[in-house]
Amino acid sequence: MAPLVQVEQLEKRFGEVRALDRVSFDVDAGEWIAIMGPSGSGKTTLINILGGLDHPSAGRVVVDGLDIGNLGERELTRYRADKIGFVFQQFHLVPYLTALENVMLAQYFHSITDEKEAAEALARVGLGDRLRHVPAELSGGEQQRVAIARALINQPKVILADEPTGNLDEANEAVVLKLLRDLHDAGHTILVVTHSHAIGNLADRRVELEHGRLARISVPSLAKE
Amino acid sequence: MASRSMFFRILWKLLGASRGRLAVALIALTSGAAICSALLNVNLDAERKLTQEFRTLGSNVVIAPPAGGGDAALADASVLDRIAALRLPRIVAAAPYLYVAANSGSQPVILAGTWFDQVAKMNSWWKLEGGWVSSRDDREHCLVGFTAARQLGLAPGSSVQLRSGDRAISLTVAGIVTTGGAEDNQILTNLDSAQALAGLSGRVSLVQLSVSGTPPEIVAVTRTLAENLPGLDVRPVRQIAAAEGTILGRIRGLIFWTIALILVLSMLGVLASMAALAMERRRDVGLMKALGGTVPRIMRLFLAEAGTLGAAGGLLGFLVGVVLARWIGERVFGVVISARLEVLPITIALTVGVALAGAFPLRLLGRVRPAEILRGE
């Protein structure tokens, strides 16, 4: 079976700066990949390209059979709605919408809204009693859980998380990690950008970048042995 | 259906989210709409009131036999009955005139026989010394034009003997009129008296009409009269019609340009608020695009927000404008200007247009690149 995500000789240049330099790797469906590396190594650029938020300068990225380098703006927008679920470090919730409406917003841009389904998604991340709260009334951990519910609501092929615990305290980090682990156990494909080795160790594989190049791909479980 | 309800749900939240900035935009829109509504109300009502007032400034249509006909150049007085039978509501007054060359002693003078009640209706601006001849049937009194009175040495209360051929009448001067026109050289008296003096019973030289309305409406009345009065010339008094048209045109032009200027100023007010709002909304738009929102779908939300604001501003402005129009009407025209419902949709449409034009900065949000916004650039 073909990998769900294929990255081949991916390059991204910002003027003279080469943010990604001939990066290649594959991700199978249901895998949890940790993308790691120091600041400025190209992790966020990689995840932006995978998420259809940025265009590659060269190389190929195929997700679920779609070569996203060949997609126009309109098709990329549809790609993001259909195939990708984003979780950001800054949560990025719409401040004037309630938790429920933030989840429904993703439904709205995908197809049609279903309030009951959105409420169930929030209940699954432990926020069944916070549906009508706006982000300012939620803790950081709760906001990130709303973001996870929103990322999952349209059953995306891939969940892309950029430092999902970067703004959380330990207790909330543990809650979010458990959620990610549950998602992985449920068969979701997850790519997480992280600095944290603890999170990296939970992944099936670690893709490590340095200066925009692929430094190594490792399997944490083997490293432990 | 669910998507439409979500659209209105987001729209409602958007309207509540930036209340301060939206309130500033709403004030700008309401102020602009209020002035537009007031001026449009004034324009519609003032035009009607002005055309009514113009009708007190002399006749604007003359009916006479074709020129160059000698004695035949007199019309039958029954023309007045035929005009009345047409029941044209725009005819404010109709005054017949019979001009007779007469003598007062050795001095020649023109005697004009007419209906004083009709003359009074269309010439309220005439300056009068003494009294008016109040009844159409008053055969004893006359009005004397200012110049004629000086030449004949007449004053209110004087008697004047007029002769034409072997016929004579004696009249008492009720008042001296100053008109600035031909009447200053004439003596005006009852039509029957003039007909008797001239021996022209049932004849008139011409009929002066005062017709209300805009120049095109006056032309329409003239055409109807001409069709129904064959053998007579029906002519609008071009100078008066043109002057009235010019005044109305200038008032209309002044109102149009004032409205245009006010709308541009309102739009600049909205533009300033929306530019600030657009900066606040960049992150939301970046996020919506990341979630798969297409530019038209996102822009529809923001334009609906601006449109709603415009409609609210238009409605509020209309109400304020009605009060303002009343005040302007009383202060400037001395009349009560009533609210015209047809102004409401025009005001709302103009204000929505201004709001959408002022929302131009929000349209630029379509260019936001989500990757840049979401990483905090």
Instruction: Compute the CA-based radius of gyration of chain A.
Output: 17 Å
What's the CATH H-level superfamily name of chain A? P-loop containing nucleotide triphosphate hydrolases
Output the CATH class name of chain A.
Alpha Beta
| Structural class by secondary-structure content of chain B | alpha+beta
What kind of assembly state do the chains in view correspond to? heterodimer
Number of strands of chain A: 10
**Secondary-structure element order of chain A, N to C:** EEEHEEHEHHHEHEHEEH
CATH architect. name of chain A: 3-Layer(aba) Sandwich
Number of helices of chain B: 12
Characterise this structure.
The complex is a heterodimer of chains A (225) and B (377). Chain A has eight helices and ten strands. Chain A has 225 residues and is an alpha/beta fold. Chain A has a six-stranded mixed sheet, with helices on both faces. Chain B is α+β, with helices and mostly antiparallel strands and 377 residues long. In chain B, strands 1, 3, 4, 5, 6, 7, 8, 9, 11 and 12 form a ten-stranded mixed sheet that branches. In chain B, a hairpin with a 2-residue loop joins strand 3 (91-104) and strand 4 (107-114). The interface between A and B is medium-sized, with 33 and 28 residues.
Jot down its keywords:
heterodimer, A: about 220 residues, alpha/beta, 6-stranded mixed sheet, 4-stranded antiparallel sheet, about 25% strand, globular, B: about 375 residues, alpha+beta, 10-stranded mixed sheet, two-stranded antiparallel ribbon
Write a concise synopsis of the structure shown.
The complex is a heterodimer of chains A (225) and B (377). Chain A has helices spanning 43-50, 73-83, 99-110, 115-124, 140-152, 170-185, 197-202, 220-224; strands at residues 5-14, 17-27, 32-36, 58-63, 66-67, 84-87, 158-162, 189-193, 205-210, 213-218.
